[in-house]
UniProtKB/TrEMBL annotation:
Keywords, sorted A to Z: Signal
Protein name according to UniProt: Membrane dipeptidase
A Gene Ontology biological process term: proteolysis
InterPro entries (UniProt xref): Metal_Hydrolase (IPR032466), Pept_M19 (IPR008257)
Superkingdom field: Bacteria
PROSITE patterns reported for this sequence: PROKAR_LIPOPROTEIN, RENAL_DIPEPTIDASE_2
Length: 419
């Protein structure tokens, strides 16, 4: 692994350069070798994030994945220089499609958009073969990280683009998809969302959603329950032959938000081998209050677009809405949570289910990032804090990538048993 040398070279040189005692002289006392620092330990780990929304930036002409782009909180936080500084080896790069109407026309548009997003990921790798490599398995991911390249696994957030035919999942699988999240902000054809307040809280998977879980198992894909209602996640757990993962989620016991889960539910997920990857999306970490100026601007925006859903509107209306929203965010930034609050969620999860069932999915470039951890270059701070809290290097290996690889291997093994 390219980072390994940074961590061990100083220690190796200490041993290699130490003069040998003369045979006729008594050996001098051996000085204790200093323990590796948290930064050196971090450099030896395979560090993966389970939810990188960075592909949303790849079609932006102002963004260059190889350059050190000016950071924008929540939207520009991952590129090669930042990954290098933060010791991030890669992870799951997301094919995200916003939820739209459940109509044939909208399904077709979503399918085309998701296909285009996947092609952008593939192009990124093809354009920079010495920097990135696609991983199709856990073994691939570990080999790529050890080679010094960045790991590109693919996941789908919101299966809405699959239309009403779960066999469409195989189209994306054939081009490298290895994880599928069924649902997003609103209910869709596959089941209930954690944040769709127009439907009952106990809305679980539809029959089509249950078929999609079975198809994911058949293909060997990891099933992601993030954004899904608790009832939907329970259905996934009942149907899936492999553990369910929550790629970017927090804990209700720290902040009672619909996107977070209870301590008891986390224990159930862990008991089946599942994993929670802790989110760094400020609005899910704690209650935050907009400034009066921001509230007034948002209220004006609401009036201006009354009766319009910007995510399902025509392209011109959507672009106009996003331009106004960006202007508001620039003039009156949304309040941000803190690194300490993020760690409170992570440490609580570790206290409840241990390092075998916890990881990190910060929602980089999808709204994530907090004060004190503004982009991926700050990741060594997490390692430092976990070491301070008493977690071992073996624990860190699981938290930073080992748990993801375990669940992925379980999905791969399930596929083998059905072939």
């Amino acid at each position: 692994m390219r980072k390994m040398f940074l961590a061990v070279s100083a220690l190796a040189l200490l041993g290699a350069c130490a003069p040998k005692a003369a045979e006729t002289e008594a050996a001098a006392p051996v000085e204790a070798v200093e323990a590796a620092t948290p930064a050196e330990i971090h450099a030896t780990l395979m560090v993966l994030d389970s939810h990188l929304d960075t592909p949303a930036n790849l079609s932006n002409p102002d963004f260059d994945i190889m350059a050190d782009n000016p950071r924008k909180m929540g939207s520009v936080q991952v590129d090669v220089p930042k990954m290098t500084r933060g010791g991030l080896d890669g992870g799951f790069w997301v094919i995200f499609t916003p939820q739209g109407p459940l109509t044939d026309e909208a399904y077709e548009a979503a399918f085309k958009a998701a296909t285009a997003r996947q092609d952008e990921i593939l192009k990124m790798v093809a354009d920079h073969p010495d920097t990135f490599e696609l991983a199709y398995s856990a073994d691939d991911a570990e080999r790529i990280a050890a080679s010094g390249k960045f790991v590109v696994l693919q996941s789908m957030e919101n299966s809405y683009p699959l239309k009403l035919d779960v066999s469409n999942l195989e189209t994306f699988y054939d081009k490298g998809l290895r994880m599928v999240g069924l649902i997003h902000f609103r209910d869709n054809q596959f089941g209930g969302s954690a944040t769709d307040f127009t439907s009952p809280d106990d809305k679980g998977l539809t029959d089509l959603g249950k078929d999609l879980v079975r198809e994911a198992n058949r293909l060997g894909l990891v099933v992601d329950g993030s954004h899904s209602s608790d009832a939907s996640v329970r259905d996934m757990m009942e149907i899936s032959t492999t553990p369910v993962i929550l790629t970017h989620t927090g804990l209700k016991s720290v902040y009672d938000h619909p996107r977070n889960i209870t301590d008891e539910f986390l224990k159930e997920i862990a008991a089946q081998g599942g994993v929670i990857q802790i989110n760094a999306y400020s609005g899910y970490l704690e209650e935050l209050e907009d400034s009066p100026e921001r509230r007034a601007a948002l209220e004006q925006l609401k009036v201006e677009f009354e009766g319009v859903n910007p995510f399902t509107a025509d392209d011109e209306t959507k672009a106009r809405y996003m331009e106004r929203m960006e202007a508001i965010n620039a003039e009156f930034p949304a309040p941000r949570s803190t690194f300490e609050k993020f760690m409170e969620h992570m440490l609580r999860a570790l206290e409840l289910v241990g390092p075998d069932h916890v990881g990190m999915g910060a929602d980089w470039d999808g709204g994530g990032g907090v004060e004190g951890m503004e982009d991926v270059s700050f990741l060594p701070k997490v390692t430092e804090r976990l070491i301070t809290e008493g977690y071992t290097e073996e624990d860190l290996k699981k938290i930073w990538g080992g748990n993801l690889m375990r669940v992925m291997r379980q999905a791969e093994a399930a596929k083998e048993t059905t072939e």
